[in-house]
Amino acid sequence: MSKGRINSEGSMLTASRTFRFAGCSWAAVERAAHRNEDGVYVVRLSELARERNGHTHAQPR
Hints:
The chain has helices spanning 9-21, 26-32, 45-52; strands at 33-35, 41-43. The mean pLDDT is 81. A two-stranded antiparallel sheet has the order 1-2. The chain is mainly alpha-helical.
């Protein structure tokens, strides 16, 4: 997952907000990320909230 690139200011802001919401933990972001049908990683804030509330594994999609 770390091979992706951020190519716009909007993408950078979204990544920054997501990282902060995850408690500044890329591991939490990676655990919550899922690939959609187009192969794009999607991180739902609800999955990150589960991480923050002590549920260590994201729900499968």
